[in-house]
Amino acid sequence: MDIFDRLKATAAADWASYVEHDFVRQMGDGSLPQAAFRAYLVQDYLFLIQFARAYALAAYKSRTLADMRAAKAGLSAILDLEMDLHVRLCGRWGLSPEQLEAAPEHQATVAYTRFVLDCGVSGDLLDLHVALSPCIVGYAEIGARLAGELGPALDDHPYRDWIGEYAGQAYQQVARDARRHLDALAARAMTEARFSELAALFGQASKLEADFWQMGLDMPRA
Ligand SMILES: Cc1ncc(C[n+]2csc(CCO)c2C)c(N)n1
User: Could you say which of 82, 98, 135, 141 is catalytic?
Assistant: First the structure.
């Protein structure tokens, strides 16, 4: 059992509220309203910008070159890869770069991203990576589960690009690497006395992910 599995088991209810959220279920069965998906995509663009800052903060909080390189890889993945992918996906959903730039951040986006940043500012690198981990590993778990449930039906599915991206080998590897790095950090920096604090951070981040999905469901009706 790695540290990620321990955190997940300790915050099981919060984790389930995130990875089994209605938004995810509706995305899987194709019943998710397109307006909800679009609202989510816009906020996810704003989310990724803040996430890039969190990786920059991880570089600042690093004491070893290996940790700094891991932070740099996370930042590069967003700036050189993830953002382009996201803007292209948004384009296929009729959202222009100008629309993305002009959108105001929703409270749920502010709450989640600033929570993660504060974990890093007020804590150490382990706190920051624990707060980041639900989002990196959770999307890999959700993508793989939905792709597995759909099988060949994925080819003809309204949300195939999103599911295919997170179920794909490249993202699954990103999540495995993040997990391994977290485990190495914990082996170096964690005491058992600290575990319950970290599990609380992990649970809070998972709840904020669930709120992010809920925002997607609620926004088009707001
Ligand atoms: C709300 C929300 N949570 C998690 C992710 C997944 N994710 C977080 S950072 C990143 C780039 C990986 O290097 C990816 C794919 C997301 N996009 N939006």
Answer: 135
ipTM, two decimals: 0.95
* Residue of minimum CA distance from atom 17 in ligand 1: 44
- 77 CB under 6 A from ligand 1? yes
Domain containing 83 equals 3-221
* 47 Cβ inside 6 Å of ligand 1: yes
pLDDT in tens, 46-84: 999 999 999 999 999 999 999 999 999 999 999 998 999
User: Which CATH number fits the domain that encloses residue 182?
Assistant: 1.20.910.10
Taking each helix axis from N to C end, the angle separating 125-150 and 34-60, rounded to the nearest 10 degrees, works out to 150
* Ligand 1 atom, smallest distance to 135 CA: 4
Q: To the nearest 10°, the Cα dihedral for 53, 119, 73, 43?
A: -50
Structure tokens at 113: 């991203």
Domain count for the chain, please give it.
Answer: 1
**pTM tops 0.90:** yes
